[in-house]
Amino acid sequence: MRKLTYFVATTVDGFIGAPDGDADFMYAYADQEFVGHLIAEYPETIAAAGRAHLGLADAEPKRFDAVIMGRNTYEPGLKAGMTSPYGHFREQYVVSRSLVEAPAADVRLISGDVAAEVRGLKARDGLGIWLCGGADLAAQLADEIDEYIVKTYPVVAGTGMPMSRVGFGVRPLELTGCTAFGGGQVITSYDVKR
């Protein structure tokens, strides 16, 4: 069975973006060592435009071959003309109640019960499923997430968009990995204890 992994960037105080969702400020805290690790270990999570620039156009996926994102996560790329930001994935999903037609042939829309759709995806053969974001979608899928991989940047935001809007509820995790980088970034991975 495939796993749903919430692979997400966050500040030390747990925000994935500014109050409006913009996360560009975190890129200032991504040094060469950290980016090199992301390229080596998670090449498929780099959007198509970045893959071409980094020479990853033909890089094989290591962990994920499906991506699911909320409309707000998809929107910035769409506004920049990237209708298929992860076209190198076998499956690309956008959860939206407002889009009635997919902007690209290889993007599939989910407008109904997203948890049921994800359970169906998990039952299929393949690599893992990357939950790309955001906070509302992470809340809707809280009971379907099997693994968290959290890229923590060495910055405190004070307020902003949280990792999830699920509300209070204790969900035990088991630490499965921790890698610290010289620039202060840390990648921690956790399995969800069921």
From TrEMBL:
<dbReference type="InterPro" id="IPR024072">
    <property type="entry name" value="DHFR-like_dom_sf"/>
</dbReference>
<dbReference type="Pfam" id="PF01872">
    <property type="entry name" value="RibD_C"/>
</dbReference>
<dbReference type="InterPro" id="IPR050765">
    <property type="entry name" value="Riboflavin_Biosynth_HTPR"/>
</dbReference>
<dbReference type="GO" id="GO:0008703">
    <property type="term" value="F:5-amino-6-(5-phosphoribosylamino)uracil reductase activity"/>
</dbReference>
<feature type="domain" description="Bacterial bifunctional deaminase-reductase C-terminal">
    <location>
        <begin position="2"/>
        <end position="185"/>
    </location>
</feature>
<dbReference type="InterPro" id="IPR002734">
    <property type="entry name" value="RibDG_C"/>
</dbReference>
<dbReference type="GO" id="GO:0009231">
    <property type="term" value="P:riboflavin biosynthetic process"/>
</dbReference>
<protein>
    <submittedName>
        <fullName>Deaminase</fullName>
    </submittedName>
</protein>
